[in-house]
Each structure stands twice: as structure tokens, then as C-alpha cells.
Records
---
Amino acid sequence: MQVDILAIFAHPDDVELTVGGTLLKMKEFGYRTGALDVTRGEMGTRGTVENRGLEAEEAAKILKLDVRENLGLPDGHVFADDESRTTLVRVLRRLKPKVILTHQGDDPHPDHNHIAQLVRESARLASMRKYDEASGAEKINVPIVAHNVFSRLVAPTFIVDISDFLEGKMEAIAAHASQFYNPISTEPETRLTAKGFLDELENRSRYFGSLIGVAAGEPFYVREALNIEDPIDLLTRPMNLYS
């Protein structure tokens, strides 16, 4: 299976929390979509690895993903070392994504920060014919990497209108039931398990949507210059900010 767009995030619910709406929209456009969870979330405060795996499968169905895999790196111990890079390069060469969505750099969670670096390095290495020649996998074109703006105050390069897909995004998030508010749970509380956390997430999507004059949005930034074919089409797209 090859995909057009691949979301690579640390834990089994991170894809849904950050780019679920974008993945649903890309699927609606007819693109092949995929998710790669880098760890199994075994250091999470709530839930078991087995249960979180089942939740991820259910969320994948809601997001209509063509493929969802787990890289199996150790939760809390993800680094951009050569073993991890080789592991990820082999997945990228097999799935051949054109676009990768991932964490932003300098995220306060070490795994998130290291994955941003790991993804950028692996995307480049996957295009180098002599890297990991022993696997026999062919090199690929370097995928563009778009970082989801989530934990740091960063001006987005672009915002994806997910107005028609916000409900589906929230449904996919809710599939990870072990991680969020449950009034009868006896497990320890975290910020994610607070009663208002999911409302905060939805409000966040609505805030970024308001910046482009729509109901909901997901923000991204890219570090490379974008090659724009038609700047007039891009810059005159209706935003309804002053109507």
C-alpha cells in the first residue's frame, strides 16, 4: 500500500488530536491517507497498550485511513539515532508519501520534539540511494514535511479549512476513550482527562478557522519555501473576514 499523505505522530491519539480533520478532508478529495504512530503509548497515565491499540484501530476507521501502522519505538525514549532513522526510512520507502504531517519542533514533550527531527532527517535519507542499501528498497523523492502548530506560539504557513470535518475529527478523538474524561474512572487524572479538555480542542479548531474566515481549521507551518503555480488563485481565495 502506498499513500499520498502520511501523518507521523508519537502516541496513538496524537494523529486525531492534531490533524484528524485534515486527513478526513484529504480522503474526501480522493487521496490515499495513512497514519504512523511512532510508539504504543506504553508510558501513558491511563489505558493499556492493548486497549490503546484497539482504540487506534477504531479511530482509523472513523478517519477512513487507508493504512495505520505503529513503528514500535519505545515511548519516552524516541531519538533521531541511526537505528530509528533506518526503521523509519524503510517505512517511508514502502509507503512513498508525497506529504508528511508531523509534530512541530521544540515541542515541550521530548518525544514530539525528537520525532519532528527524526521525520525531517528520515525524509531526506529516504531519497539517498546509498543509505540502507542492504534493505534493497528503492529511494524515493523527498516528501514535503508540514508541521502541525500545536504547543508553541508559531505563525502558521497555512491553515486547512476543516469546517465540514470537525465533527468527524472529534468523533475520532473520542474513540480513544481511555485517554479522556470519564467520571467513573479510578485512574489518575491528567490535563487530557479534565472534563473541559475536548471542548478546548474544539474551540482551538474554531479559533484557527476564524483566522481564515471559516468555522474550523488546522494550522501548519513548513520550513521550506513553497512553489506556488498560481499566486492569484492562492491569494484571492475567499476568506469572508470582513463580510
---
Amino acid sequence: MPRFRSPIVKKQACIRLESSRHPAGGFTLIEVMIVVAVIGVLAAIALPSYNDYVRRGQIPEAFTLLSEYRAKMEQYYQDSRNYGTAAKCATDASASSWNTFPRTAQFFSVDCATTNAQQGYTVTATGIAGKAIGHVYTINQNGDRATTKFKGNDVTAACWLTKTSTC
């Protein structure tokens, strides 16, 4: 005599059969390793570009400080007929509100030195923090701009470098 199964038993058997045909979801080790490798390659390309972008965003602080001090030094010269004493720039009491050399900003420190018997000066901005470390910029009484250090390397450029080591 043939055995008859109930419809419920048949349905459970089909469910078991379907679930055994499809493996459990997830990723294989190879797939995970490929994703990690792709992320590594993207990071290797993107990180240096990002660091350069951040560095170029911090450098304008030096240019602003140097230009500001140059204008103030010229105003000081109009009043005093010199740029300061043998040791310091803008030493008169009338300049005491701004002649705070060396001055430290967020990414740069600014210093000033007189030259040519106080008839000249050089204001220097040196990177002290962030990606600005390794950069040194100067300006003098003639408005001559120079870069003496760029990305940690000594250079002699007659301009303020930002992107490359050439003017």
C-alpha cells in the first residue's frame, strides 16, 4: 500500500531542498582582499594630493603676514627715517602696537632684521605648524619676495613658491 504524505510534509521537504541549493550569503576571502587592495591603491593616490592641498591652504598665511608687515614697516620709515635699531625692526614706541617680533600666527612665525645701517630690513616667515613646516619666505624693503625653503628643501627662488619649486 502506497504511503501518502500530507501537504505540510511535502512543503517542508521543498523548503529544505531549496535552502540546500543556495549557499549562505556573504563575501569570500578573495572578494574582501580585492576590495582592500582597491582601497589601498585609492588611498595611495589620494592621500598625497590631499596633503598638498592642505599645505597650499596654509601657506597664504605667510604671504598675508609678510605683506602686512611690509606696509607697516614703510609707514614706520615715513615717521622715523629708518627701519629700527641695529638689532630690531620698528623699535620706536609709536610702533609698539604692532612691532611684536617675533610674532607667531597659526602656521607661521614672523621675524624681522634690519640691514644697511637701518635703511633696509628683511621680514621672514617660517613655518612652525601643520603642513607649513619646512617653508621659509622673505620680503625686504624693496618688495623683493623670496623663498629660501620649500617643502623642506633649500631653494633660492625670487618669488613666493606655492605649488612647485619654480617661479
